[in-house]
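Entry 14. Structure prediction run on the chain below.
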Amino acid sequence: MHILPVLCLTLSPIQIDGSFHDWEDGVTQQEDAYFVYQRIEILSEACLQQLSEQKVVDIGEYTIFFSPKGKGYGVSCKKGDEWISPYDAGVVFSPTTSATEFELRVNKPKTTEPLLPHELIPKGDIRVVSWNVQFGNILNDTDRSARILKALKPDILLLQELDGDDTSEDILNFVNKTLEGNWSSSTSESNGTKRHHKLKSAIVTSLQPKRFVNIEKLKAICGTVDVKEKPVNFISLHLRCCGGPTGEAEVKRQEEATSIRLLIDNMQSPRWIIAGDWNLVGTMKPLEIVQSNKLAIVDAYQLDNRINATWSDTTSSFTPGRLDWMLYSPETIELVNSFVFDTGDLDMKTLLEENLSAEDTAEFSDHLPLVADFNLIK
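Output returned:
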């Protein structure tokens, strides 16, 4: 085992993204001024939060229990003899999908990474914002959602987890009051009778829409929008939640992904942007099915450039993870900028300039907005 001493990683910080390109060969533990890092290997492919037996890792001042005994899922944490929340220790690891190798990070006690100013101005031809708004909070907490949208300035909104009673007219009334432009919207149809079955996805745009297409029995909607006189197809999707790498939920996610892939193939369009809550808590297969070696992934990080997690819930046994993803057609569309928007990453100057508070995104939804700017190149 090769251990690096305390490093100044200002030029090349460790990013918790599951790619390991920023680790030196043979290094399994290191630290910088704010965090302690460790690489973890397991014998067979699995999700760390869905193991058949618990795995215990000592890192920094903490002991981390993956899939702890008596619970069998999630993460527990101790500092010395005291049980604490994994969120209090800053536990973050990646990937949160099934794998044999992972990278883990915890906070150093009594240290706080400095906040830096950030510019939120859109770049490129269009800005796309994908956002799971947690049971329709975009219409329930309108003061907060309006502030966030005004700061992000989207041209296309891909929304997920609208409540079943939320209509396109409700969305339009709110967005037209909040943002400049003449907006159009369409939502997916509700399925079933239970609230979580009735949830909807939506496409909302200030550009000229040509058509909207429902994807039958899915929380997904497809729309074609003219961008610089060229049709671009968008899909806002919300795949089946929960489960692990095996079982009914994972099978359902893959079936839903296959339906979306068939729609893409049938339309045979050269320009696609597809985003939403993929709920990748099992395998990467649903994303790979839709991607089909034709679409590129938007590798967006939070504004501190340290992690790419888009979901967290401090009341949950599960630690932050990357549930929201965006794909695009790289032969016709160029990615020029992307980020995962967490108001907790903004310094006070930026917060004041954008009329935001540090708690806005965390208190609004358990998902963070995924933001990407694109140019049309063909």
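The first strand starts at residue 2 and ends at 6.
Filed with the rest of this week's runs.
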